[in-house]
Design brief:
It is a single chain. This protein is mainly alpha-helical. The protein has a domain of 41 residues. Helices cover 53% and strands 4% of the residues.
């Protein structure tokens, strides 16, 4: 029985043990080492939609505020145990969000 493991047959594996590569892992290209090929040039082309998305991302990045400092302050307050949650504000915002979502589904 000649079973294959990882694309190497038992007879090829036996040949490898004897010092014979039995053609495993070789790909003949038909070129000598002196022959060289021209390097391939990769090209990328973007669709109009991709270009518009890129411009939109840049515009949004300019519009949105930089919250980095506020985020760091909140992280520090959480770590210090001094972060206080305003339950009324949180409940109001959750309710507004739910009403907005509910309005979208009608």
């Amino acid at each position: 029985m000649d079973s294959k493991i990882n694309r190497v047959s038992a007879s090829q594996a036996q040949g490898l043990r004897k010092g014979n590569d039995a053609g495993v892992g070789r790909k003949e290209t038909g070129f000598s080492q002196e022959q060289t090929e021209k390097p391939q040039v990769d090209t990328v082309s973007l669709t109009d939609t991709a270009l518009r998305i890129g411009r939109l991302e840049n515009t949004v990045a300019k519009i949105l505020p930089d919250n980095t400092q506020r985020v760091e302050e909140i992280k520090k307050a959480i770590i210090d145990g001094t972060y206080e949650i305003n339950n009324i504000k949180l409940a109001d915002n959750l309710l507004k969000f739910e009403l907005t979502i509910d309005g979208l589904h009608k």
